[in-house]
Amino acid sequence: MSFRLLPRLRPRSILQNGRIATNTRLARPIHTSLPVRSGPTSLTNILASETPLAVQVASVSEQGIYLEDGLHLPAACIFIDGKVFLWDVPESVTQWGREHLTLFEVVVPRPEILILGTGVELAHPPPSFRSYLTDLGIQVDVMSTRNACSTYNLLAEEGRRVAAALAPLSPRRWPKSHLR
């Protein structure tokens, strides 16, 4: 069996209506796509994420929570689905109730886990608070606000459906003018 080298294809000139035309079908490299023959079409970016970028906490101090985008939150807040909500809760964790969690009834899809930051130290909310979230299908992890921010950042980075409800290190409430 013998092998022979085939000549490379070159554009051929063809006589059409007295003019010389080049056969471009033979000249086009193999790796290119066929030209689009119809009008413009919409493209789908298969690499784009359908989930919004998560909120990322940069630091936590006595003055509040600082986000990566430069936003400073001096009082309680909730991070869910890439958004920040001001959270009007009593300063004492023991006074928190179901009425402070109504946001989670309307969120679709609901987070699979809520990281609850209770301030400088771990403080457990009332049992009704936790059972209400469990009834909504949301797992609750309670920890200090510093640990809650770190855990939230980690889970959000992994792409988990996570929310954070964070009390500040120094107990303070939002001014009523901010909550309207």
Q: Hey, roughly how much beta strand do the residues contain? A: 15-25%
- CA distance, first residue to last residue: 87 Å
> For the residues shown, what is the average pLDDT?
80
> How many alpha or pi helices?
4
Instruction: Determine the structural class based on helices, strands and strand pairing.
Output: alpha+beta
Polypeptide structure, described:
- The chain has a domain at 57-178: MTH938-like (Hypothetical Protein Mth938, Chain: A).
- It has helices at residues 24-27, 103-106, 127-135, 145-157, and strands at residues 13-16, 19-22, 57-61, 64-67, 72-73, 77-80, 83-86, 113-117, 139-143, 162-166.
- Helices cover 17% and strands 23% of the residues.
- It is globular.
- It is built from four helices and ten strands; from the N terminus they run E-E-H-E-E-E-E-E-H-E-H-E-H-E.
- The longest helix is centred in the last third of the chain and has 13 residues, at 145-157.
- By secondary structure, it is α+β, with helices and mostly antiparallel strands.
- It comes from Mycena metata.
- One of its GO terms (biological process) is mitochondrial respiratory chain complex I assembly.
Give the arrangement of secondary structure elements:
Layout: E1 13-16, E2 19-22, H1 24-27, E3 57-61, E4 64-67, E5 72-73, E6 77-80, E7 83-86, H2 103-106, E8 113-117, H3 127-135, E9 139-143, H4 145-157, E10 162-166
Parallel strand pairs: 8-9, 8-10
Antiparallel strand pairs: 1-2, 3-4, 4-5, 6-7, 6-10
